[in-house]
Amino acid sequence: MENWGLSVFVEQKILLDPDVSSFSYQMELTMVVVHEICHQWFGDLVTPVWWEDVWLKEGFAHYFEYIGADFLFPKWNMEKQRFLTDVLHEVMLLDGLASSHPISQEVFEATDIDRVFDWIAYKKGAALIRMLANVMGQPLFQRGLNDYLMTHMYGNAARDDLWNKFSEAMQREGKDINITQVMDRWTLQMGYPVVTISKNESLDNSVTISQEHFVYDTEAKIQNPELFNKSFQWQIPLTLAVGNSSHISTETIIWVSNKTETHRVGHVDGETWLLGNINQTGYFRVNYDLHNWRLLIQQLMTNPTIISVGNRAGLIDDVFNLARAGYLPQNVPLQMISYLSQETEFLPWHAASRALYQLDKLLDRTEDHSLFSDYVLRQVEPKYHKLGWPATSPDGSFMQAVYQTEELQREVMMLACSFGNKHCHRQAVSLISDWISSNKNRQEVSVLNTIPPAKRIIKWKVNRLSNRIPPNVRDIVYCTGVSLMDEDVWEFIWMKFHSSTAISEKKVLLEALTCSDNIFLLNRLLNLSLTSDLVPDQDVIDVIIHVGRNPLGRHLAWRYFREKWDILNSRYGEALFMNSKLISGVTEFLNTEAELNELKEFILTSGGESAPAFARAIEIVQANLKEFILTSGGESAPAFARAIEIVQANLKEFILTSGGESAPAFARAIEIVQANVKWHILFQEQFYRWLRKAPDG
């Protein structure tokens, strides 16, 4: 939290123990500190006129987290790489829901203020600022920003004040672009476009470009005509390049303002491919005809480095999400990741792992789940065996690699262990066993009085130096060990959680406890988290969410959430960020019709102020079910899908009219759950049908 001239941090966001902290934790702390320092200018020196433009301070602070981190640690390459997966890809998931909202929201009452501090303000704000900076070029962008700060320092400013300063900076360089006209489309409309690019068969060296509002649930446009009949259009700065197996052209920028346009480009024939949104600087998705997708996949298979690292990650994110929304067949993203054994950079692997984990949570309770996990392992194992585990020095300690290498190794290891690679499992079990052996046979001292004497607890001496597991992979090793080994290992990790004084280590240990395949232990952890002082209040939500991400704990966490809702809501209801995080986290992977009905019933009886978060949850579960119906619903699928839509529309109306402050989180919950359900209805069988025939290589 920043005040003018004073930044205040909770200890877990400022204290760092380098001996036990991973790269990701160091990165997180760096960016929190940079964020709060940035607020001295954006928010304090110049304050938004009104709450509707809170993104003017939060979006800029979030954007400069990555710029500032790059200044401090250039090798991290945050703005060109991690920004894509951690900001752009993440917020586009949220902003692709029909329950999203414009970045500038009207605020009439004091109770509306907390609602505007959400990821749309932070992450979409940062993404739009980055897009504008790339359109203007950094020198002009910085000049306009400097003028804005100097003109309005010690005072207030609105978004038009910012746009005017940027327009003036452009005009002084002879560039006549009305920034207000361009950016109002992006800030006053919800969502973002999908741009479809295809070769024009009737005109030589020409392409047809169209835009439409991207929504995961495309049927929502039919159900909500009052919203989608606005015919959203954006002024899109589309960068475009043409390439072939050995060459890619210099990018050109095309301003797309109409629903459909035709433009001349460089030489285009049957063997050249088109690539839009170069380096993913724009806030939109790009789709192509199937032939162009096949050419891009072939390029990745033969020579991926022709396409930039950022675009390789962008292609992966776009193709999975376009398939999820029904724009592409389900096999296209699966074919694309078959190139990963040749991928040597962290960012595309990170983009792929995020997409694969999301799919895995949708499929992990289906009968044919092994088809998917086996296919993923076939793509991952060549790189896993090549990279191996962190190297050890002669004294047995692990050596630290350079950042990009270590992050790539960690990403591949996590995929290998998560999807069942036996070598990865053995290695994790061996490291955990060695750690336990070095701590055994010590005097037993209990730190838990809440566990009945009949329950055997192994006590361990605290010896942090005995833990030789590399900090960067401890979360992988701990989770894998807890999931594969016996109850004694769970007790060991539990005791280590209590004895550790390093906040980053405590967080990793606590999350590892949620990986158990023992329902009794998961239930015990949930109860201890909420009803005792053994787990800090700020960590209770993470425990419930991570138990829900465990396929064996999903229904347990969902039931616990409903049973304890009054306690949870009274404790976290005022903190809308935490409340929304809890609702979304517990419901985002529910994907059966029964779970969707449970969610709807729960909202109708308990919604109250959290109605918005629950509405989002229902949307996600409904999307999951839709995918299931379309893939396995047979002839009944269309009727089943229509019935779901009618119920969803009625429930959303109830939530939005009676949900109170938490209505947005409820709305997202409904939409997400409903989308999950519909994915199963619409696409699951198609998905598995292709996997049954997929090549082994």
Structure, described:
- With 697 residues, the protein is α+β, with helices and mostly antiparallel strands.
- The protein folds into 5 domains: 2-188, Orthogonal Bundle (Neutral Protease, domain 2), CATH 1.10.390; 193-288, Sandwich (Immunoglobulin-like); 320-363 and 366-416, no CATH class; 421-494, no CATH class; 518-697, Zincin-like fold, CATH 1.25.50.20.
- 57% of the residues lie in helices and 7% in strands.
- It contains 29 helices and 11 strands.
- The strands form 4 sheets. A 4-stranded mixed sheet has the order 9-6-5-11.
- Strand 5 (193-199) and strand 6 form a beta hairpin.
- The protein starts with a strand and ends with a helix.
- Residues 441-464 have low confidence and may be disordered.
What features would you highlight for this structure?
single chain; about 700 residues; alpha+beta; Neutral Protease, domain 2; 5 domains; four-stranded mixed beta sheet; three-stranded antiparallel beta sheet; 29 helices; zinc ion binding; peptide binding; Peptidase_M1_dom; metalloprotease
Q: How does the SSE layout of this entry go?
A:
Blueprint lengths: L1 E2 L2 E2 L15 H16 L7 E3 L6 H18 L5 H18 L23 H18 L1 H15 L2 E3 L1 H14 L6 H10 L4 E7 L6 E8 L6 H4 L1 H4 L7 E8 L8 E5 L3 E5 L8 E4 L8 E4 L1 H13 L6 H16 L6 H6 L9 H18 L5 H19 L15 H16 L3 H16 L36 H11 L2 H13 L3 H11 L5 H13 L5 H13 L4 H10 L1 H8 L3 H12 L5 H14 L4 H22 L4 H22 L4 H20 L1 H10 L4
Parallel strand pairs: 3-4, 5-11
Antiparallel strand pairs: 1-2, 5-6, 6-9, 7-8, 7-10
